Amino acid sequence: MKAFFLLVFILLSSCISSNSYASEQAEQLFNQLKPSLYQIKLIDKASGEKSSIGSGFQISRDGIIATNYHVISSYALHPKKYRMEYLDNQGNKGGLSLQSVDVINDLALVKRDIDQEMAFFQLSKTTPQKGEELFSLGNPHDLGMIVVPGTYNGLKKESFNERIHFTGSINSGMSGGPVVNKQAQVVGINVATSGNSIGFLVPHDKLVSLYQDFLKAAPESIEEQMAQQLMSNQDKLMTAILNSSWQVRQLGEQGNIPIIDVPFIRCWGDSNADKADVLILTAVANCSLDENTYLSSHFFTGSIEIEFRTMQAKDIGANKFYRLYQQQISHAGAGNRADKENVTEYQCQHDLVMPDNQTINNKTIFCTRAYKKFPDLFDIIYLAASIDRKKQALVSHFTIAGVSKRNALAFTRQFMESVSWK
Amino acid sequence: MEIESTEIENMKSGTEKAITREIIIEEISRNYKLLHRYKLSQQQIHIGRDYHNDIILADPHVCPSHLSIELVDDQWKITDNQTMNGSFIENIKEKKHLANNHVVHDGDVITLGKSQLRILFTDHPVEPTVVFSPFEDVINLMRHPIALLLSIMLFTLITAGIFYLNTPKEINFSQLLVPTVSMVLGFAFWPAGVAFVSHLSRHDARIMAQLGVSFVFFNLMWLSDFLENILIFNSASGSIIPLFFMFISIALAFSLFWLNGYIGFHMTAKRRIIVAASMTALLFGGSYLVQYSNKPEFNPRPQYNATIMMPNFLMTSSSSVDEFIKGSEKLFEKTKKEALK
User: Fold this and answer.
1) H-helix or E-strand containing A403?
2) Which pTM value belongs to this model?
3) Shortest CB distance from B303 goes to which of A327, A346, A378?
């Protein structure tokens, strides 16, 4: 949660460093590649003005252009409201049609009509070496096509869906642009930045498989394709979580909580033990999946947040302790952003629940909302507050976005059974 | 001093019985509230603005010697002294007409200037005696200074307790005092206001009774709140407890308004019920409307009941994980149905 990556086209960033050799090489590459580079624009039909911009690059001689899904997401969800347009290096404009998407890896294939065969980018067959120099291409802030040299730093650690860690400045508007090696082969696609020259790329093999699947059979409906991708991704994620070991760890003096031992869920902790005037001593551990899936600017999914909290009354009675405790658990909210168009309102139930091992007695709240466009996917909020000790409390809470009912219930059951008093 | 004038109007029998020498003249307001009552036993009665009249009216639209009523042949007869603004007779049998030479019937109302006089004979029927209702005893108990003090003290203690429990910081006595006292004064505003209105409308203010009754009910409302919390804490979602307590609080509000009306104003039982019911409807309907109009079109936050209490209040046994999961399963069906709409 703390290292939250903003999408390239949202965030602005700084500094381009280069040496003269690199810039010479970069210029050469740029001149060689620029005929196959495009700026991709979404034009709002009613106003006739662009509503979002990004970059793209041609990957086949018949006019297939690769870009980010998030560049064209508005068109994918509202094809009637927008149209897509490209702008090439000579200033020519033309329409585009959407062919296929991969929402999980933030990729999209669009197509321009061409009269004659054109030059296109070669996709690399190998992955780069750590430290290898790469060149990111794109059109930041609508300022014109640029090339940014940078370094390949392997895959991002602890990510569920692989991203390349690229040390180089990627800026808003460069989304969807290619990153090439010295042989001018595409090794990644610009997708996100977390500032200070830390950029993230989608590995080229995701694009290769998307393109090959597309050549085999083009999707009939983009929405159905997205639904399938979301469904199978959550299945993969939840299977990995449910099949991993859940280690018992102590929280505070008395609480036992599960820590899910998978690299892509990372935990942080905090407590107020240093403050003298608090009425309740609190220790918090929260764990989360550091990535989520962008569906539109109002709708994200795929996130997981888990939070545990122990509380111990200090100098106050049980009655006051429980009052303040209630205030603490009254405001649980969704872990992902979603709006009326995409989800229903939450439906909740609550009950007093004691697991069969009788180690804890909880007031347990479970809420869910359904996705409107992607049937059988749900957001979940779970919160359990212990009510069996007078001046101690253990709160266990999680939110999951975009899971199937079966996975949600399996996770909930396992979670409920693994939180207890010591 | 007060008399239900409209009632008497309706009860007028219309039969003309033997006229006695004594006559009652009531000065009444435009909405038939009694202002003064005179019982006279002379043959001739003079009414007007100057000081040799038997009944002196301060109304500037009344002439100095406006009219006289005289007993002739066992009948009272009105003589208008050719006044500027005239005198008129009104009763339930006849239309409003000039009063000159009119033979007075029991219950007739004479309009002169902007004043109204009602004439009654000694055999005019009166309403049956109103028995003290059992409420009177209860009200007397509640308005007793000791009882009143106790209920206000109880209210104060509960209020201070709630402030104390809800403050997430350490808090000292004086920090508690200010919000508590303002809360108590705020709540005292209601009975004081009712007493003031009844005073304005020429009823007895009875402020002690109003205060006593109101604070007892405020305490009952705290109690119902507390019971509601205990029951909600001990029950699963989907129970009827919130609905039940909704009815309890409506009933409490209605009873309070009814008693406020009973203490402060003279009105028929039916009218009192209507007034109390409409005030209750205004209170609950109003707050419902406010809530409804503030409700966003789409709420991205979950709405759940987080009531928890310390283990001493735990009275039920808990469900198992299986039962809870089964309950959660139903939510998926519900939201999915919603999504497909």
Assistant:
1) strand A392-403
2) 0.81
3) A346
Angstroms from B294 CA to nearest CA on chain A: 16
CA-based R_g, chain A, Å: 24
CB within 8 Å: A343 and B169: no
Contacts of A344 in chain B (CB under 8 A): 335, 338-339
Return the closest-CA partner of residue A9 out of A69, A66, A90, A64: A69
Residue B130 has pLDDT above 90, yes or no: no
Query: Could you report the per-residue pLDDT of B35-83, keeping only the tens digit for each?
Result: 889 999 888 999 999 999 999 999 999 999 999 999 888 888 999 888 8
Report ipTM for this prediction: 0.86
- pLDDT, tens digit, for every residue of B153-167? 999 999 999 999 988
Decide if A146 contacts A137 (C-beta within 8 A): yes
Pair of tokens at residue A115: 């009269």
Chain A residue closest in CA terms to B296: A340
Nearest to A295 by CA among A156, A402, A139: A402
If we measure between CA atoms, which residue out of A188, A173, A85, A57 comes closest to residue A128? A188
Tokens 């888990």 map to which residue?
A: A306
Q: Contacts of residue A361 in chain B, CB cutoff 8 Å?
A: 314, 318
Query: DSSP letters of A33-83?
Result: HGGGEEEEEEEETTT-SEEEEEEEEE-STT-EEEE-HHHHHHHHH-TTTEE
Measure CA A365 to chain center.
Answer: 27
Q: What is the pLDDT of residues B279-317, one digit of tens each?
A: 999 999 999 999 989 888 889 999 999 999 999 999 999
DSSP A12: -
The CB density around residue B335, as the number of other CB atoms within 10 Å, is: 23
Token readout for B270 is 């039916």
Max Cα-Cα span within chain B = 99
Question: Tokens standing for B341?
Answer: 């709409």
Nearest-by-Cβ selection for B170 from A277, A329, A387:
A277
Partner-chain residue, chosen from B302, B325, B340, that has the shortest CB–CB distance to A409: B325
Question: Which of B239, B299, B336, B340 has the highest number of chain A CBs within 10 A, making it the mutation to test binding with A?
Answer: B336
**Quick count: other Cβ atoms within 10 Å of Cβ A18?**
15
- Chain B hits for A352, CB-CB cut-off 8 Å, are 234, 236, 314, 316-319
In chain B, count H helices and then E strands.
8, 10
Burial A159-173 (b: 16+ CB within 10 A, else e): bbbebbbbbbbbbbb
Q: Look at phi and psi of residue A6 and say left if phi exceeds 0, alpha if psi is from -120 to 50, else beta.
A: beta
d(CA B214, CA A362): 39
Among A324, A338, A375, whose Cβ lies nearest the Cβ of B168? A324
Pairing of strands A37-44, B87-90: unpaired
Helix (H, G, I), strand (E, B) or coil at B289: helix
Bridge partners of A289?
A265
Sequence letter at residue A187: V
pLDDT given for residue A101 in this prediction: 94
pLDDT at site A6: 44
Please give the pLDDT value at position A3: 40
Q: What is the pLDDT of residue A278?
A: 87
